[in-house]
Amino acid sequence: MSYPGYPYGTPTVVPAHPFDPKSDAEVLRKAMKGFGTDEKSIINCLARRSNQQRLQIAIEFKTMYGKDLVKDLKSETSGRFEDLLVALMTPLPQFYAKELNDAIRGLGTDEDVLIEVLGTKSNNEIRTIRQAYTSMYGRNLEEDLKGDTSGTFKRLMVSLCNACRDESMVTNQANAAADARELLKAGELRLGTDESTFNMVLCQRNFAQLRLIFEEYYKITGHDIEQAVKNEFSGNSRDCLLAIIRSIRNQPGFFAKCLHNAIAGLGTNDKKLIRVVVTRCEVDMGEIKQNYLAQYGKTLADDIKGDTSGDYKKCLLALIGE
């Protein structure tokens, strides 16, 4: 699922061809039967199939053995490796819905998850995630977001959740210049900030048009729009606007930063690491790896090796094509 207007197509996991879900189900059953578990066979099978294909294998598995593949995987594995396998076996809309629910329902709100999911998806993807959320939790995503956020950040989340961004990719230089002037008037040229103008422009305009608007802003002011956001906003709303701007400019670069944040620093944010690897390996992981190397001077594979271990590490490396 790549964003309209993004030419990226550098997945590290592509659908297996030829594909035989019956024989894959047999391989998995054999890997989990009897004493000990053959983790290598599990990784070889699941890390080299698309999300769609894994779901087909699960159906075959149930048909052939009367058993739930995910339950079997959970009983045979543990820790982060188990978490990664469960994520791989979850349909993407449900996976995103669960991540959003965890972010909202947990102690405090994990704003990073909300920004990462809602700020980088197409309208159709957001609508599908909303439906999955309602069917899984019996609640409305927008209402839950409103109940758990406040101020400018809340309005940004509601706008993004609404999924009504223009996706035409039609650009207009004059309109871009006008929007750039509006943003300048709403921010740096006045006392206090008119947040609603930023909200409207960044959540409504199509990605190609926004890139033009950022260029125009630079032409008028001589500095980057990111600088303006840093000066005018604080906290979650600043982080959210910056994330939107960065993902519009360079989505693989944005996800490279997410991965680096998950790995760098004290301890590993495994939840984030799993989320980005599982959801991007079929989209633009090749591009993300290039950006990672360019931004941090180290390969993503080396950082994963240095920060994870065992079958968890092996499976992550297989997913990023290493």
Short structural summary:
With 322 residues, the chain is mostly helical. The protein is built from 20 helices and no strands.
Question: Roughly how many Å is the radius of gyration?
Answer: 21 Å
Task: State the shape.
Answer: elongated
Given as residue ranges, the uncertain stretches (5+ residues, pLDDT < 50) are: 1-7
* Average pLDDT score: 94
Major sheet characteristics: none
Helix content: over 70%
Q: Count the strands?
A: 0
Number of helices: 20
Structural category is mainly alpha
The helix/strand series, from N terminus to C terminus, equals HHHHHHHHHHHHHHHHHHHH
**Which percent band covers the strand fraction?**
under 5%
Intertermini distance: 22 Å
Oligomer: single chain
Secondary structure layout:
Elements: H1 21-32, H2 39-46, H3 51-65, H4 69-76, H5 79-88, H6 92-105, H7 111-118, H8 123-137, H9 141-148, H10 151-162, H11 173-186, H12 195-204, H13 207-221, H14 225-232, H15 235-249, H16 251-263, H17 270-280, H18 285-296, H19 300-307, H20 310-319
